């Protein structure tokens, strides 16, 4: 075991190799990264195409209350909803999704 002593001392006296991700050293996303889904309520016509093509059922459109319910924890970020949206009310940016303490659902109110 004496051959392990230099390794143990080096590890005790050096900095950690992990990054403090959400707080420090946030990197630029790589090319082709598909980030957060953003909804533009002013452009939405509530056609429901996005909910129909979503493979993970992360989007739900309710006509009666004029709401879009989006669950980012179900979303697989395939961008099918972005491609199918004719009025271009759904976009996808290149930001990383922030870590969350609890799972939440976003509700988007579409104006009349």
Give the CATH level 1 class of the domain at 34-109.
Alpha Beta
Task: Say what the CATH topology of the domain at 34-109 is.
Answer: Alpha-Beta Plaits
Q: How far is the first residue's CA from the last residue's CA?
A: 74 Å
Tell the overall outline. elongated
Could you say what the CATH architecture of the domain at 34-109 is?
2-Layer Sandwich
Strand composition percent: 15-25%
Please count the helical segments.
Answer: 3
State the low-pLDDT regions, or none. none
Radius of gyration: 21 Å
Structural class: alpha+beta
- The order of strands across the largest sheet is 2-3-5
Order of helices and strands: HEHEEHEE
Mean pLDDT, as a whole number?
88
Q: Strand tally, please?
A: 5
The helical percent reads 10-25%
Could you give a short account of the major beta sheet? 3 strands, antiparallel
Describe this entry's structure for a reader.
The chain has a domain at 34-109: Alpha-Beta Plaits (2-Layer Sandwich). It has helices spanning 5-13, 49-53, 80-84; strands at residues 37-39, 59-62, 67-70, 90-92, 106-109. The mean pLDDT is 88. The protein is elongated. The strands form two sheets. Strands 2-3-5 form a three-stranded antiparallel sheet. Strands 1-4 form a two-stranded antiparallel ribbon. Helix content is 17%, strand content 16%. It contains three helices and five strands, in the order H-E-H-E-E-H-E-E. Strand 2 and strand 3 (67-70) form a beta hairpin. With 112 residues, the chain is α+β, with helices and mostly antiparallel strands.
């Amino acid at each position: 075991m004496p051959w392990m002593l230099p390794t143990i001392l080096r590890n005790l006296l050096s900095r950690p190799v992990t990054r403090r991700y959400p707080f420090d050293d946030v990197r630029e996303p790589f090319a082709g990264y598909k980030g957060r889904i953003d909804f533009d309520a002013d452009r939405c016509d509530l056609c429901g195409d996005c909910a129909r093509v979503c493979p993970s059922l992360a989007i739900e459109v309710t006509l009666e209350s004029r709401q879009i319910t989006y669950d980012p924890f179900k979303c697989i970020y395939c961008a099918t909803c972005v491609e199918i949206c004719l009025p271009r009310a759904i976009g996808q940016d290149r930001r990383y999704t922030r870590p969350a303490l609890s799972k939440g659902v976003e509700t988007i109110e579409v104006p009349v």
